[in-house]
Amino acid sequence: MGFSLFTLQITHKIDARTDVERDHIVESVTHGNAVVRLTTIRDFSTEYHARNGGGDAIETDGDLPVLDLRLVRPLAGFNALPSDSRDARPGATILGAVLVGGRALVAGALLVTLLLSWQELTTERAPKK
């Protein structure tokens, strides 16, 4: 966790050497599993040393490994059925949508009020004596 150098918002941080992490994951998946097929697309993106959207330094060789797991079978007794939670919306998303909708309703009500009272608001009144 840290602060984005661009937006100053709280965000996640990454290590500059993303290829090391990528290669570790690829090796972990392919180690001891002969049915996993690995194809590497060389120079998928250009090799660069720059910063990502969060302002973190990043280095990459530009290669894109593709793991084909279609022949991998789950262990016996392993329940591979997806859970129902993937269909549920997170509470924060629902709250955000309700707040945005409420704000739109308030803005609409204000606009209607202004339009209905426009004549009264723009008419000059004689000063009281």
Automatic annotation (TrEMBL):
InterPro entries: LssY-like-C_dom (IPR025902). The keyword Membrane applies. Keywords: Membrane, Transmembrane, Transmembrane helix. The chain crosses the membrane at residues 94-118. Residues 2-64 form the LssY-like C-terminal domain. This is LssY-like C-terminal domain-containing protein. It comes from Cryobacterium roopkundense.
